[in-house]
Amino acid sequence: MREVRVVSADGEQLGILPIAQALDLARQRDMDLVEVAGEAVPPVCRIMDFGKYKYLQARRQKDARKKQTVIQVKEVKRRATRPRSRCASRGGKWRTRTWAGRCSTGWRRS
User: Fold this and answer.
1) What domain range includes position 48?
2) What is the distance between the alpha carbons of residues 32 and 61, in angstroms, rounded to a whole number?
3) pTM of the prediction?
């Protein structure tokens, strides 16, 4: 007969029990017997209210999505300037350097 290690809803170790006895114990407490670690020897099962567990897990994921921030990258368009004089071409280079520096540091205009 196959045996499993049983853990109660409080986290208390109930020992290694046959599956039938573990199921009876879960039914007495009006809970479910859920396999937690099937690869372990013997497999570990937990007595818990599975519906409540699924509900709480869905709530946590929903709250995590609410707290998550989405970063939007804005594109900076630069008009092509006609160099009328030497100063105008330097101004374009300065403008490019400034915006490149601001974009790399995450500068935000307030």
Assistant:
1) 3-65
2) 23
3) 0.55
